Amino acid sequence: MNPDKPLPEGLHPDTLAVRVGIDASPYGENSEALYLTSCFVQPDAATSARRFANEEDGYTYSRTSNPSVTAFERRLAALEGAEAAIGTASGMSAILLMGMGLLKAGDHVVCSRSVFGSTMKLFGSEFAKFGVETTFVSQTDVAEWRAALKPNTKLLFAETPTNPLTEVCDIAALAALAHDAGALLAVDNCFATPVLQKPLALGADVVIHSGTKFLDGQGRVMAGALCASQKLIDEVFAPLIRTTGQVLAPFNAWVVHKGLETLAVRVRAQSANALQIAQWLESHPAVDRVFYPGLPSHPQHALAMAQQGGVGGAVIAFSVKGASPEQQRARAFHVLDSARVCSLATNLGDVKTLICHPASTSHGRLTEAQRQAAGVVQGLIRLAVGLEHPADIQADLARGLDDCDNY
């Protein structure tokens, strides 16, 4: 950015993804500089004192702020339509920061029971140690969310689509419910990204991202972020992260900042590939069910198309047939082990297609009862579709699916 020529108003998201950041240094670099430094030299003691007291803008120490992190935060906030954002060390650290900032002992949370396994553990076990109660409800039943509300409910938390079953919640309906109860709505937007969905525009108060996923796009670094009002960022989250230190490393911030430049191109292409593969999976005799919002068979297909700009996203879950959980697991493992193109890995959002078994990985620390309640059966496989030709991914999956009867 050129401080003498600020960006005009009304730019499209694709332009914001390339142009929003921080001012160039005196050297005039076109690709944003990387500021690998833990501290910053101050011009004099009085200025240093004002900056440490937050009376004057300026960088002091990278646990508080760093130019590379600021560039990422500004670009992500612009894409989400948020007043501000704050970077964190990972997606889970973002959720931890949010909970620590918004909740206290005696508070109550209503959370979808279909969220990521570590999120369930964080709310159900770790926050519980400090007196925060969480009620887990159906992702899709607004009436169940309403029935779970209590006078001390402070937060409603949802992913949409969920990991791994791609269930979609009605963001606007949950926002209205939360606000009527005097609570906030937080939405994990990791799967859809701001390319497909902007929860703040639908009434959400906080948006969570794992920058490790689509925002980076190439599986290189760990990163997370919260997007919210300037007031929440400045008065709640920024002072807390300064104390607790869940900060985003400058190098990781720079990588994800650059990843945002190609986010829209990647997400649209990967989503197109995913739709083609999901349609093929739905016709395969060894597949019991396909979970993908872009398919008419998805229970929340119409809602997903309305919320996500008519695009289903790049993550598919599907279950293989089997007479028992043991056989389903054996067949799922066979499909995984037969893959030669897909990477057996638990990340997602990578340009390389990744495949995993949620029941033994992302949801492996949950009890079997919790997994069943979340719909994570032993035959379930998650496929995070990349940029390979979809025909090659279909052939790779067919290698294992075609002879599932032998397992």
In percent terms, what proportion of residues is strand?
5-15%
The biggest beta sheet, please?
Answer: 7 strands, mixed
Mass-distribution shape: globular
As a whole number of angstroms, the C-alpha radius of gyration is 22 Å
Query: What is the fourth-level CATH superfamily of the domain at 263-406?
Result: Aspartate Aminotransferase, domain 1
CATH hierarchy class name of the domain at 263-406: Alpha Beta
Mean pLDDT: 96
What can you tell me about this protein's structure?
By secondary structure, the protein is of the alpha/beta class. It has a domain at 263-406: Aspartate Aminotransferase, domain 1, CATH 3.90.1150.10. 39% of the residues lie in helices and 14% in strands. The protein has helices at 13-19, 45-52, 67-80, 91-102, 117-126, 142-148, 171-180, 193-196, 230-244, 250-259, 263-282, 301-307, 325-338, 368-374, 390-401, and strands at residues 84-88, 108-112, 133-137, 153-159, 184-188, 206-210, 224-228, 287-291, 315-320, 343-344, 354-356, 380-384. The strands form two sheets. A seven-stranded mixed beta sheet has the order 1-7-6-5-4-2-3, sandwiched between helices. A five-stranded mixed beta sheet has the order 8-9-12-11-10. Helix 1 (13-19) runs antiparallel to helix 3 (67-80) and helix 3 (67-80) packs parallel to helix 10. It starts with 12 loop residues before the first helix and ends in a 6-residue tail after the last helix. The model has no long low-confidence stretch (mean pLDDT 96).
